[in-house]
Amino acid sequence: MPFRQFVLKVTSRCDLACDHCYVYEHADQSWRRRPKVMARETVAMAADRMAEHARAHALRTIHVILHGGEPLLAGHERLEETIVRLRDAVRGICELDLRVHTNGVSLDERFCRMFADHDVRVGVSLDGGRRANDLHRRYADGRSSYDRVVRAVDRLGREFPDIYAGLLCTIDIGNDPVPVYEALVALRPPVVDFLLPHATWDHPPPRPAGVATPYADWLIAIHDRWRKDGEPVRVRMFESIIRTTQGQGSLTESLGLDECDLAVIETDGEYEQADSLKTSFSGAPATGCDVFSHTLDDVARSPAIAARLGGLEGLCDTCRACPVVESCGGGLYAHRHRVGTGFQNPSVFCDDLMKLITHVRSQAEVRPRAGIRVRAGVRAERGREGAAPAAHTIPGPDLAALAAGYGDAATMTHLAASQTSARRLLISSVYKLAGPGVADAWKLLTELDRGHPDAVREVFDHPYVRVWAARCIARGQWAHPETRYLSNIAAAAALRAGVAARLAVATRGGSVPLPAMGSIPAGRAQEAIIETGPGVFAVATEDRRWEVRLDEPAAAGDWRPISRLTADGVSMALDDVDPYRDCYDHAVAPRLSPERLARWQAMFAEAWEVVKRDHSRYAPALAAGLRVLTPLVAPGGDVQASATARHAFGAIGVALPGRPDDLAMLMIHEFQHVKLGAVLDLTDLFDGTDEELYHVSWRQDPRPLEGVFQGTYAHMAVTEVWKARTRPGMGHIPEKATENYLRWRDGTLEAVDTLARSGSLTEVGRQFVAGMRAAARSWLDD
């Protein structure tokens, strides 16, 4: 496994004398024999080794943290030389994510400007307010470091926000947690890391008598206040618990089952493991390798690295059997050490981690996903008989109904609830990515969520809101112009709630879009001001102002509300205005004329009659789960076009066909993809590392396993539509319908067998495919 993260120790000394420091105050004292500053030739050799490693493993990005000791003691010139040498070494090979972690006391304007010029992000250690910070972070003569650090952090936030990476706080349970939290948040960091104090079973952390989980209690107090405040900053520990619960990677070394891909390079060029191991015993982080004699592949093969397995295999039996192991991961490796048993122990903070993880999961309303893939096999969470199913599990009867191709209204409601939760997490992640620029929108949303949760949910549940959020997260730091759309979401929620609010909102394509509501033209303006009230809103740009009363939309003229299609008690949006509806592989149609809209309405009403009459087993799920139709541009001729998007649960794109029964088939076909996508958000049906390609009858090119799953599940419905069309009186030539039915039947049965034989299905996946096979085999009676 290649290394992707590197800590470069540019200095080995520090200008503070923190009494909890793992480098100077714990078991390993190797700093005493090392150079105070890394020599230029060592920097050059380290840079070349990293570049060599990135090229050999085709790495797209490597992450380097300039560290110490205190890295700023290297001085402005030497540190800038080091930065330039690192960037030069990897240029044309990979991207370099470069950061520096400092105690902040020497972080002057010159350093900040230099880091900004070279795109180096800056993290600072701070343990809270003055009293909390001065418990440990003092100079050797006892003087406080607080004022200098806070001045430096304040400068970062005000003058250099683009390189402000966040704050790291080492926990001391002697400090009141809420004031610590308030002091950190007041400095507006993009991220806060809370670090458990380093300890082992032989040297356990301080615990008050009679208190079983003081560190969990301390963190839970902060977590609950953080949630109440609307999560104003990212907290890496809390985010990691939620991410790992959902099968994603951790954001911190101290949690999760991710394999370790970190190497440390000391000032003398020696390679070491993570610094936290210095708390275990003398020599614990050593690898026996150095940059002058060894490549990074040599380090990866060294016994020291091999002994530290990631994943479930590297944990003791107690951890492997633990119900929160996906999130805990055994805790920080160093915290497991005990003389006699080495690292084959739970964390010395085991009880605290169990309590904290359980609490965060319950407050965020997340559960471990059914079928989370861990190396020991598949874990599936089963609901208790009679208990209401959790939003992040699939009850057995629902899974069986979905596997057969159907599902009722209750099943769709359950899948929709899981999607609501997923959207909330994604939107929260976008807010944390965006930072202060959308603070007003986020504050409004948190207030609305407390007082008008239905209004917030209606807007959040519009399918294209998740498309927007997913795009922002995929673009990362380049998404900042897109993140302003959060203000439009907040304005739409305020309008639905009938609440008075005033926000600066983004324009898209010459309009101000309000998701799930509609849009209004804005000319060439890049920004507009919206004011909402009960049943009314006004939009103003530099040169114009519109006022819209929702009960008199025609009076507004320019207001373009989202249209609705109705048929026999069923209603869904026909969205031809949302700027994020362009998520399909086909071009989306522009705003419909009144005549085109009338044609859509007439054909939809007839198509729904076809669904109810001829395909009644699909009708309940469609009625409950299909929220939005988006018109696509027709390809021309007799070619039909329809599509779904992975992040747009509840929406399909369709080019209006010539016949109502074809629209019925396209809706049924595409909604199969929507249902299966929601299932795959909840559970792993197959091993995601399977890179094999498989042949199916409806494609000339071989498909990855997920593509086979999606195609097979959708064509189960297509087969049944053609089977229905073989009946007399259906308006189709029986011979042609029978030919199509048999072709799709045989191809789908073959594809189901391909899935079953793939060897990559999880236990849940085997159950699901068995349900598909049972449903498909009933066709053989024909």
Automatic annotation (TrEMBL):
CDD domains: Radical_SAM. It holds the Pfam family Radical_SAM. Keywords: Iron, Iron-sulfur, Metal-binding, S-adenosyl-L-methionine. InterPro entries: AKG_HExxH, Aldolase_TIM, rSAM, rSAM_sf, rSAM_SPASM_FxsB, Sulphatase_maturase_rSAM. The keyword S-adenosyl-L-methionine applies. Residues 1-229 form the Radical SAM core domain. This is FxsB family cyclophane-forming radical SAM/SPASM peptide maturase.
